[in-house]
Amino acid sequence: MYCAGRAVARCTTRSALTPGHAPRPHLHPVTTLAGRVVTESLPEDHPHHLGAGVAVPDVAGHNFWGGRTFVRDRGPVALDNHGAQRHDGFTRREPESFVQELTWTAAGDPLLREHRTVAATALTDSAWALGLTFSLTNVSGRDLSIGSPATNGRPGAAYGGFFWRAPKEATAPAVFTAEGDGEEAVHGRRADWVALAGEGWTLVFAGATARTREDPWFVRAAEYPGVGSSLAHETRLAVADGETLVRGVVTVVADGRLDRAGAAALVRTAVTS
After folding, report:
1. CA gap 165, 53 in Å, rounded
2. How confident is the model over 1-14, as a mean pLDDT?
3. Residues 226, 205: Cα–Cα separation, whole Å
4. What is the sign, positive or negative, of the torsion defined by CA atoms of 14, 226, 21, 237?
5. For residues 147 and 235, what is the distance between their CA atoms, to the nearest angstrom?
6. Which residue(s) pair with 145 in the sheet?
7. How far is CA 47 from CA 77, 88, 129, 138, 226, in A?
8. Is pTM, for the whole model, over 0.90?
9. Contact present, 240 and 145 (Cβ < 8 Å)
10. What is the DSSP string of the chain?
């Protein structure tokens, strides 16, 4: 993908990953306009983290996140329950955007069909915005539900949905919202936006729709740097047969370390552009 005439992201559609990684299309590397890489894929600490994309640890018991599955009263367990997101094709490909069709399969059966739109928009000479919207339609022929380790008994681990793995550096990144500072203050909370500021870069994540902004943020900084949405925060999310759920996140990708006012200003521009 290109923005302002510069290559800023690469979409991997197919990979040779093992089933335990829950293979899926993803964006990596994603860079700032100055060329600094702000995603990480296959990191040593969590080798199933794949850049920026959509990942869900529990769809009717199938793991589309990768790695171990959290089982109530047992903890993380290595199970043969991984699904995969199959890239079916692009319906539109342009230098600064694409529309992608995917099928989420498990045990050979299609569970969900996804329509994903990704677009890059220039904001300033040092910042751009990446919009990622996904629609998931239940095509399994039965009612499904989406869960997380939190809904399965692990407090504070409500990850699943949009997820961005950032590079791990010598110092943990700063994390803040319009009203809070630090991982503890922003993790698991609802906020219009959340910022992750590292060494010479800042990422600001914002819900692109009112419904997306209802989902709390999943935030990690000390253990590893990553930000995502929580489709299933406290209870499982039911998806009836034939039903479609839609979420969208806009990510500001900026060179330099933004403060609260700078992050808020860029988010306002990104969400309305």
Report:
1. 9
2. 96
3. 11
4. negative
5. 7
6. 238
7. 16, 25, 26, 28, 13
8. yes
9. no
10. -EETTEE-EEEE------GGG----EEEEEB-TT--B---BS-SS-TT-BSEEEEEEEETTEEES-S-EEETTTEEE--S-B-EEEEEEEEEEETTEEEEEEEEEETTEEEEEEEEEEEEEEEETTEEEEEEEEEEEE-SSS-EEEE-TTTTT-TT---BEEEEEPPP-SSPPEEE-SS-BSHHHHTT---SEEEEE-SSEEEEEEESSTTGGGSPEEEESSSS-EEEEBSSSSS-EEE-TT-EEEEEEEEEEEES---HHHHHHHHHHHHH-
Q: Which of 59, 88, 60, 78 is nearest to 18 (CA)?
A: 78
| Cα-to-chain-centroid distance, residue 249 | 8
Cα(237)–Cα(148) distance, integer angstroms: 10
Query: What DSSP line would sit under 15-44, residue for residue?
Result: ----GGG----EEEEEB-TT--B---BS-S
Torsion angle, alpha carbons of 58, 63, 68, 71, to 10: 40
Q: How far from chain centre, in Å, is Cα 94?
A: 22
Q: How much is the CA Rg of the chain, to the nearest whole Å?
A: 17
Distance between CA 270 and CA 204 in Å, rounded?
10
Per-residue pLDDT band for 168 (boundaries 50, 70, 90) equals very high
Over residues 105-150, the pLDDT tens digits come to 999 999 999 999 999 999 999 999 999 999 999 999 999 999 999 9
Burial of 37 (0-12, 13-18, 19+ CB in 10 A): middle
- In the chain, the percentage of residues whose pLDDT exceeds 70 is 100
CB atoms within 10 A of CB 94: 12
